[in-house]
């Protein structure tokens, strides 16, 4: 399984943007970049995903490097409810399963 | 609203007993579901892929005779932890893909917290 590398933890302030980085230097051409987040004592929830182009949805934006070896999840205006562990995962069409890494624990300060 | 449910949400059992956890897709059919286990302060570990109408596919190191998976219908998968021991205490989470596309996104259940005494 292609691996991703994320910082263990990050901290930001409420109502400020947050940029969560992810390195995936061994990504293959058909791997999709998925982001999920997990709030305490809950199952993960889907945030966003992309292949090559940057993506936006109501939750976040995903910026993908031109060489696809890294990506950044952007929360435009963090709230306290965004405090969670954020997982960057490479989804392989061949394997068709999500393999979680350690993720980034995001703390939001009021 | 939730699209994948799990039951029970938490269970306490005695060592040596078996525990069944249900995972249901609520408004869609899922030919495939996934089971994960998560220990405190750790990430999710994929245990197995549940396949409707066929045997489950287990990840390396997961004992198939201990963690029995049955995908009884297109909306239900069950995980039975047989002869549970304290080291099986964990947070068990299931997921299912809703759209059968190459960009599948997973919908996760709320998890089942198992405590084996």
Describe this structure in words.
The complex is a heterodimer of chains A (110) and B (117). Chain A has 110 residues and is mainly β. Helices cover 0% and strands 45% of the residues of chain A. A five-stranded mixed sheet of chain A has the order 1-9-8-3-4, with no helix packed on it. A four-stranded antiparallel sheet of chain A has the order 2-7-6-5, with no helix packed on it. Chain A is globular. In chain B, strands 2, 4, 5, 6, 9, 10 and 11 form a seven-stranded mixed sheet that branches. A four-stranded antiparallel sheet of chain B has the order 1-3-8-7, with no helix packed on it. Chain B is mostly beta strands and 117 residues long. Chain B is globular and about 40 Å long. Helices cover 0% and strands 52% of the residues of chain B. In chain B, strand 7 (67-73) and strand 8 (76-81) form a beta hairpin. Chain B has strands at 4-7, 10-13, 19-25, 32-38, 44-51, 57-58, 67-73, 76-81, 90-97, 106-108, 112-116. The mean pLDDT of chain B is 92. The chains are: A mainly beta (110), B mainly beta (117). Chain A binds chain B through residues 32, 34, 36, 38, 41-46, 49, 51, 85, 87, 91, 93, 96-103, and chain B through 4, 6, 32, 34, 36, 43-46, 49, 91, 93, 95, 102-111, 113.
